[in-house]
Amino acid sequence: xxxxxxxxxxxxxxxxxxxxxxxxxxxxxxxxxxxxxxxxxxxxxxxxxxxxxxxxxxxxxxxxxxxxxxxxxxxxxxxxxxxxxxxxxxxxxxxxxxxxxxxxxxxxxxxxxxxxxxxxxxxxxxxxxxxxxxxxxxxxxxxxxxxxxxxxxxxxxxxxxxxxxxxxxxxxxxxxxxxxxxxxxxxxxxxxxxxxxxxxxxxxxxxxxxxxxxxxxxxxxxxxxxxxxxxxxxxxxxxxxxxxxxxxxxxxxxxxxxxxxxxxxxxxxxxxxxxxxxxxxxxxxxxxxxxxxxxxxxxxxxxxxxxxxxxxxxxxxxxxxxxxxxxxxxxxxxxxxxxxxxxxxxxxxxxxxxxxxxxxxxxxxxxxxxxxxxxxxxxxxxxxxxxxxxxxxxxxxxx
Length: 399
Prior knowledge:
- The chain is an alpha+beta fold and 399 residues long.
- It has ten helices and 15 strands.
- It has helices at 21-51, 58-67, 83-104, 224-240, 247-281, 292-295, 301-307, 309-322, 370-388, 394-397; strands at 2-3, 8-18, 125-130, 136-137, 143-145, 149-154, 165-170, 176-185, 200-205, 209-212, 218-220, 284-288, 326-330, 359-361, 367-369.
- Helix 5 packs across helix 8 (309-322).
- The protein is elongated.
């Protein structure tokens, strides 16, 4: 999701689509052609690097791998799909190389990424149509795609504006989706201020309880993966016993994919509902920055992946900004758990043994619940940072 703080924002709207059997065949052909173009681009650039030849540009590869290749007997089937699909596959490969070079040169944030690799034939696939493809939503609600036809769409809401592109996605369970990119005003999702204009909350994330909010309100950890882990293990065991390439193995793979899909969709739906409620009730939200990758390398890695802290924080920040709420991340090294919210002394439990201490008493005599105390400290520190950054009027900070 891309933000433009000045005027507009780009959003994605995804809907389930139901292509007919001939349309599924056309989509499969388009998926395959896009994968071939992507792999041809990588092969051409790898060859140029090994031979010490000039680096082939996107324009050169477009002419060689698409325009000229269509005239050959070995690649004449590329003409059976929309040229925009092939151009977008080439653009994806070119973007992957640019991201790789930017990462190597230190111009790209985040961990260093490796060079693009060949795409293998997989269950999950996608292709993209831009406005140049002249796709459109017809009056009867069907989505017209070039060289595919009018595809039935299960509309759950209206698009706020004319889409600039649409991505057709086939999931690992065989379901099809259309993901539209639309540009809207940046205040389209702005919410009315809460009933209490001074409402604010710190959010202390954890594994025992998913989150603790202001006033000791607890959001329990739903443990979606743990609930279906036994079923997933059974499905994996059945998959491991099937012969490679057999029809029974394909069925077993689908059963595994469906369990994963249920876990993912349940988590995503639950998370969106929690975020909507939190953002609607508070004018300001303060969270603690977490080293999610570091946490996922510890003993509790499985539980950390299950709670999906990174997904929650990303979606919460996105929703808060679009709703006109104040959102602040405090430093991950801020001692929110050890700090006494009454006197400010660092008298809380420390080290690995301290993780099992749920309540403690400060030298000043204050009794603290571990998570509730952390929420207070996160809220106070987040409020201080928000005032320094001028994110809201001082009236809220004085409360």
